[in-house]
Structure formats: C-alpha cells, structure tokens
Amino acid sequence: MTALRVIRGGELSGGTAQTPGMQRSAAISGDIVGASGLWMGRTVVLPGASSGDHHHGASETGIYVVSGHPVFVFRDPGTGQVTRLETEPGDYVWVPPHVPHREENPSPDTDAVVVIARSTQEAIVVPVPGL
Question: pTM, whole model, 2 decimals?
C-alpha cells in the first residue's frame, strides 16, 4: 500500500508533454508519485498566446480555471462549426477523448492558469492540423 503524498507547487515537473504556447507542469504522474490511472498538473498559457491544435488520445480531460480568462476552441462534432468557450476563474471544462482543441489567452498582460486532470497518468498530447 502506498501512502498519501503532498506535491508542493515548487516541486512540479516540466518533464511532460508540451504544446507550443503553453507551459505544462506535472504534479501527479507515474514518474512523480507512481500513479497508474491518473495524470494531474498545471498549465500556464502566457498573455496573448495560443496553443497548437491538439488532442489527448483516449484520455478524458478535466480542467479547472484557476486564474485568467482562457478560451477553449474546438470544432463541434455535431455541427462542424468552430466553437469558442470563454471561461473565468472557478469554471470547469470537460474535454472528451480524441477531440481536437486549443487553448488561447486573449489577455495582453495576464497569465491564464488551469489545473488539468486526465483519466490516464500518461500526459498524452497529439498535435493535429488546424481546426
């Protein structure tokens, strides 16, 4: 049996899958705590930045907006229309498996910070061509 662990904010690892325009840091992963079914970490989208279009494979992703006003952009599978979800601190976003999306931070001077949890401890990031 494994004991509980605290991972301090300063102990996060940048040694995880990255997407241009974002800075991902792992907190709970197989490498850090021995997790086998969960990955969790923090992502910072810099002011004015936009991530590359990507998906997370078969993994479900839950996102909690800590600060800033990130925008999540995806192509709606029902309508084919590009959809923009504008968020604010305290909001949650669910990203289903294999859905291409990107994160944008429209602020000219404030980071957008989110906490991400995935249904696999592996940080899967699959770049895709434009939405």
Answer: 0.88
Total residues found in the chain within this entry = 131
Contact 60, 118 (CB under 8 A): yes
pLDDT in tens, 2-12: 789 899 988 88
| DSSP sequence for 34-85 | --SS-EEEEEEE-TT-BPPPEE-TT--EEEEEEES--EEEEE-TTT--EEEE
Long-range (24+ apart) CB contacts under 8 A made by 14-23 are 16/41, 16/123, 17/123, 17/124, 17/125, 18/125, 19/51, 19/52, 19/54, 19/125, 19/127, 20/51, 20/52, 21/45, 21/46, 21/49, 21/50, 21/51, 21/52, 21/103, 22/49, 22/51, 22/103
**Domains of the chain and any CATH numbers:** 40-126 (2.60.120.10)
